Amino acid sequence: MTEAISSDGSAVDPAASAASASAASAEKRGGLGALLRRHPTAWIVSASAVVFLLLGTGSVFAGVAWASRDADPVATPTPSATTDPPRPVSDLAATPTRLRTCSIAGPASDPALTGFYASIMRSDTGEVLFDRSAAVPAPPASTLKVLTAAAAIAALGPDFRITTSVYEGSSPGTIVLKGRGDTTLSRLPVGQESVYAGAPKLQTLAETTVAQYAARYPGVPITNVVLDASYWNSADAWEPSWREDQRTEGFQAPATALQVDGDRDDPRAVVSPRSTDPIGRAGNAFVAALKAADTGGVVDAGVNTSLGSAVGQTVLAEVQSQTIRTLIPQMLIPSDNMLGEMLARIVSKESGSDGSAASLQKSIMGQLARWNVPMTGVVIKDGSGLSPNNAVPASTMTILQRSVHAGVDGLDAVRDGYSVAGKTGFLSNRFTGENAVARGNVFAKTGMIKASYTLSGYLNAADGVPLVFTFYAAGEGVGGSARNALDTVTTAAYRCGDNLSNN
């Protein structure tokens, strides 16, 4: 068999050539059917395209026919487009809100709290984390002393000292003892401490007076000691809402500008019965100190005392209290009511007012304005918090606590006067049992009068976030169990920290 050669010179299989020729002949004979059998997929796709084209064309013709129907001879106007007015859009960036999940609602609902007023803020940011009637004025009890202390820092400064003076009288033989509100002046001899450690002594004042008077008026004995308590009106010394048993049981004396040892029977006892005449009591103690200091007939044996005011300016002797920075912890830690009253009255006088009880609200709150403490709802009847008619919203107290915690403008003196949970002051025996976890981390001023138990200060939460807070348990029937209930709420807030929820 001779091998066939293609046009390009390659060998061609005769059988394959024959098959190709036969297929070509068959394709020519078979027409469209053969093509469909040879390329079925291609023809199906092509057919589908044609059908789609025909259907689309039909739709177009149908649409033309519909559009060409008899038209309504009356033209229908096209309604004009309306545009909504633009809505106001804030140009401030969206701020995410923290979802807090730690609730103290259970402890805050303890029936022992009676009426519960509460405010908790982050000390560093001022963000309110918890609020229960925080804007409602309620009796703050002794936590009011925080306002008094802060006002004293603002009006007087931390280094201010209270001066007690002895002046020459209007004639030889007369001297004048003038008080300006130093309730710490002590009748105890030098070397013995009263409840006010480091207080000035009547002995010192008397010894200097005798020496100076003898030098000026030799041979003329002192026969009359005038007691000057006119720094403010001595008749305005007892707030009508104070209970008489506060005096007899030893918590409070009339708030006169001249007195010694807080008018205590026992200068060494924090709680000691007081008298109804602090001025006369101070005069008697001073006369005794003069006689003890006299070694040469300077003081007449029958020297008497009388009430009056100094008319001369010649000073024979003076003593000064410790600084306000020292007096504030002596007021706050044992909750000394007399220091509270004295500092409040002195703030009034040094602020340009008259030292009256009626002036205290304006004088104290006026000083606190420098720390943006709001006055809304505040009622101040005294400087100690003894009056049940005092009213301060919990939020107001907490706003001040932010500045106290920061220690700005000398307020570290107030902060240093707080009791520490489980360690010092009136909190030394509190925060027990399950609340002991907060010991050493809560720093606060306590308060208690009839129908009001209070706690206000700051805490270092378990997560390290600083919180400031004020809690009042107030209302008829509230009792001593409120103390533990307040500790429990405080401990719950300590555990929650920045995750504290207001729910």
Q: Would you write up a description of this structure?
A:
Strand 6 (163-168) and strand 7 form a beta hairpin. This protein has helices at 14-30, 32-38, 40-67, 105-108, 144-156, 202-216, 245-248, 278-293, 324-332, 337-350, 360-368, 394-406, 412-415, 481-496, and strands spanning 4-5, 11-12, 115-122, 128-132, 137-138, 163-168, 174-178, 222-228, 299-307, 315-320, 392-393, 419-420, 442-449, 452-460, 466-474. With 503 residues, the protein is α+β, with helices and mostly antiparallel strands. The chain has two domains: 105-157 and 327-499, Beta-lactamase (3-Layer(aba) Sandwich); 163-322, no CATH class.
Structural class: alpha+beta
Strand order of the largest sheet: 4-3-15-14-13-12
- What's the CATH architecture of the largest domain? 3-Layer(aba) Sandwich
**Proportion of β residues?**
15-25%
CATH class category of the largest domain: Alpha Beta
**What percent of residues adopt helix (DSSP H or I)?**
25-40%
First-to-last CA distance? 106 Å
Q: Give the number of helices.
A: 14
* Low-pLDDT runs: 1-79
Query: Outline, from the CA principal axes?
Result: elongated
CATH topology of the largest domain: Beta-lactamase
Report the major sheet. Answer: 6 strands, antiparallel
Mean pLDDT, as a whole number?
86
- CATH homolog superfamily of the largest domain: DD-peptidase/beta-lactamase superfamily
Number of strands: 15
